[in-house]
Structure formats: structure tokens, C-alpha cells
Amino acid sequence: MKKTFTILSLCVYAASAQAQVQDSIAVQAPVYYEAEVDYQVEAVPVEAVQVYDAEADAVTDANGNLLDQLGYDFYATAEMDTIVKYRREIFPFVRAGFGNLSKDHQFAHSDFGYMRSTSFQWGFDVRQPFSKEKNLLGLRYGVSFSYNSVAPTDNRIFVVDGNKTVLDPAGRELRKGRTFFRNSYVEIPIALDFDFSTKTYNHANRKFVKNNKLNFGLGGYVGYNINSKQFLSYRDDVGNKVSEKVKGKWNVEDFNYGVMAYIGSRNTKIYAKYDLAPVFKNNDNDMRYWSLGLQLDLR
């Protein structure tokens, strides 16, 4: 009986406790109040606003690039990389052609074969424009190595006669294609360069496009002789091919200088050179080297 009463008492106590918790939750529930608020809007006068017309106030430079007239930088920044500017160029070049020796400034009736005497030159040049905005006028200069070869006619060779260098019979039958005299020089060329080529910016491809046009120059050069050799080729008594290479001073002038000119497109030109200094010292007739050929600028 006590056990039964105890169980009933616990059930009644649990039910009353649960009711108190629910009442507490109900009491803590938020209460919402509605209130009427009277809003009043005060009218504020608005000042007139000036509208900036970009098309009317914008200006362009000589190349048609948009610039900002009011001092803002966003137009100039957007177009800065597309403005055409001409800068210094450094590039190798090669010249190859025919050459010969004039006698007292006379080019006809030479003592050397016109087709067998050659000229070859290679080096590096710098082209510095006088203006970054225009490419027409510039200064071209550099350093190069030049090889001037002449092939005597009538089976003759160069011999040293005292302080002179003259042509004498070889005394044996020479092979024409393998017998020649060559001077090697280190040269410093300098020229006033006229270049009508231009470049434009292609907005579609986002790159600069070069338009190659006429290019010519007038100038001169100064050089120093670093090597003089005579190459002989013949057959001996039993028919064997013999090649000789004779190196010496040959009374060649140490320094060389002259004038030059070239004309053509930006990369391919025809050139001409003429020495103002004689090749040999103390000769009765002054011999001066000249050459004509093709010039390739490897830009």
C-alpha cells in the first residue's frame, strides 16, 4: 500500500513540475506592441549638377590617341602603350659583293679580274633616331670586319720590290679561281640614315605593325689593317695541286678610310664603298679599293 501511494505521489509531483515549466516558458514569451509613428519629410533644395560631356571635352594627340583635357589620367593610361615611339636599334648586318682596285681614280682597264675580286663584310650596327616621334632621320654607326680580295690578271702575283709592292709574272701557271690577294680590316662605319619606314598600332591584334619603305644612307668609315695574305694555287711538275698562303706586311697602309652609301628597303639594300686612302705605300700609282654589292640588315 505504501509503495502504491509513493508511486502515485511521484506521478503527481512530476505532472505539477511539468506544468510549472510550461507556465514559465509562456511567461517569458516576447510581447509585441504596435505603435503609430508620424513620419515627416523635409524638402531640401537640390543644386544644379554639371554633366561632363566626354566626347565634347576630350582631345587627341597627333596619332589620334584619346587624352583627358581635365587632368584625369585614365585616358592617358589606357592609351600609353599604344603610342608609336621609335627607339635605338642594335642589329647585325652582312655585306657581300664584287670589288676591285682603281689606279689613280681610274676604274677602267683594271689589272684585276672584275668577277673574281670580291668583298665581304659583317658586323653590328646601331641605329639611333634623332626623334622618338619620327623615324625619318637617324645616325647609324657600329663595328665590323671587312675582307677585300683582288685577283690579278695575266698570271701575275704581288711581289715586294724595296718599299713598293708591284705585280710580276708568277713563273708558273696559276689556278685563277684560287689565286688572290686579301686585306682584312676592323672598321668603324658611321652614316646619316634616312628611313621612311613607319609603324602603326593594330588595335584588333594589339601589336605594332612595321611598314617597310625606302631606306638610304650616306657616310664613311675608318679601319685598321689586321691581316694581309696572298693565296697561290697551282699544279706542280707531277700534277699535284699545291696551295700556298703567304702572310706579310706587303707595304700595306695600316689605316684605311673612305666613303660609303646604301639604298633599298629596311632590310635589303645595295651598297657602294670607296677607299680614299691608297692600299699600298710608296707606289708610283695609288691603288684604292672599291666595292659594290648587296647589304642585309638582320633586324
Automatic annotation (TrEMBL):
- The signal peptide stretch is 1-19
User: Which species expresses this protein natively?
Assistant: Paenimyroides ceti
UniProt-recorded name of the protein: Outer membrane protein beta-barrel domain-containing protein
Could you tell me the superkingdom of the organism this chain comes from? Bacteria
List the keywords (alphabetical): Signal
